[in-house]
Inverse folding.
């Protein structure tokens, strides 16, 4: 399946994305932290977006929407559960729904935790998923509204995706996430080497997002509460995965 995926740095550390169906030329914008860099990315390619997919209501994911819509009157897609605090939606969706972009189909899943009603869009034919502030590169979003158990539930849904899924998350937080990850998973050779790659990339000003799900599975402590090494470090050899996840999230909050 032909497609193009473009990553657009916005604000100080946010990312927006463009997904284009290579067959029909239809384009979706995923999250709109600010309009200017997104408009520039569209104009430089001569692309006209027909849809905007919103992951959650936080300002750093929606604030650029009015200016984007002023330039391109696209259909706005977001969570039904969050319709009361999202910008006006043309299509309100819930887990299990699909969104069609040309020949591509996005599956909507509820990934509550960072906020209640946060959704992710998984596009199997484009081997990518837009996870914003749920699953992030080497981390997961802070729990502003949900419980650790809810976020762990969301993580388990995302762990079902294929290994070669490109995880398009919402922020460039990977360097600080790596410092924390090493405190709970210090013996993980894959994490140690990823951390040094991240340091090198950031020193050159290169993004570390998006990332591959296979890499996250091997190195992201928030996907690895079952790992014996992490459990040994935390002194929780027999706890449930959900309890280990909660402890990792608590330590990150206090890091
Ligand atoms: Zn957020
Ligand atoms: Fe955010």
């Amino acid at each position: 399946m032909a497609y193009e995926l473009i990553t657009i740095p916005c604000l100080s550390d946010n990312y927006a994305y463009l997904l284009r169906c290579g067959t029909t030329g239809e384009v979706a914008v995923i999250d709109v932290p600010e309009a200017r860099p997104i408009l520039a990315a569209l104009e430089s390619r001569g692309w006209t977006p027909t849809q905007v997919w919103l992951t959650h209501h936080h300002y750093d994911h929606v604030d650029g929407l009015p200016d984007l819509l002023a330039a391109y009157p696209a259909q706005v897609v977001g969570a039904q559960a969050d319709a009361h605090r999202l910008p006006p939606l043309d299509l309100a969706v819930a887990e299990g729904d699909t969104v069609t972009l040309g020949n591509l189909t996005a599956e909507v899943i509820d990934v509550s935790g960072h906020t209640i009603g946060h959704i992710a869009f998984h596009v199997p034919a484009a081997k990518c998923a837009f996870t914003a502030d749920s699953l992030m590169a080497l981390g997961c979003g802070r729990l502003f509204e949900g419980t650790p158990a809810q976020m762990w539930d969301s993580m388990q849904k995302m762990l079902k995706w294929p290994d070669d899924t490109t995880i398009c998350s919402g922020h460039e937080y990977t360097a600080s996430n790596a410092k924390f990850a090493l405190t709970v998973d210090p013996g993980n050779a894959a994490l140690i080497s990823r951390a040094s790659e991240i340091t090198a990339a950031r020193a050159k000003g290169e993004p570390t997002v998006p990332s591959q799900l296979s890499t996250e599975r091997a190195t992201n402590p928030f996907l690895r509460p079952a790992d014996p090494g992490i459990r040994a470090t935390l002194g929780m050899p027999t706890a449930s995965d959900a309890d280990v996840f909660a402890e990792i999230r608590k330590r990150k909050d206090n890091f």
